[in-house]
Amino acid sequence: MVITVPGDLAGVLEGAVASWYRGRKSARIPYPVHVWLTIVGLGTRKLHTSGDGALAILDEPI
Fold first, then answer.
1. How far is the C-alpha of 57 from the C-alpha of 49, rounded, in Å?
2. CA angle at residue 54 from 51 to 58, to 5 degrees?
3. pLDDT bucket at 23, cuts 50 / 70 / 90
4. What is the pLDDT of residue 37?
5. Which terminus of the chain has a smaller tally of CB atoms within 10 A, N or C?
6. Which three-class secondary structure state does DSSP give residue 8?
7. Which domain of life is it from (predicted)?
8. Cα 30 from chain centre
9. Distance in angstroms (rounded) separating the CA atoms of residues 41 and 48
10. Contact yes or no for 9/45 (Cβ under 8 A)
């Protein structure tokens, strides 16, 4: 089992992808729900945002 801690995310960023939630008749929420960061030497990690500024690192397959 891989466990990523916040300090592991320090490095050279190769890429970033984000996803947002959009309701049926509503505008897109202002913050992304998930962000995938690809970091040199670490690979890609999925982050989950809660909207209050907190981030959870989800060590699960892409």
1. 9
2. 105
3. confident
4. 92
5. N
6. helix
7. Bacteria
8. 15
9. 21
10. yes
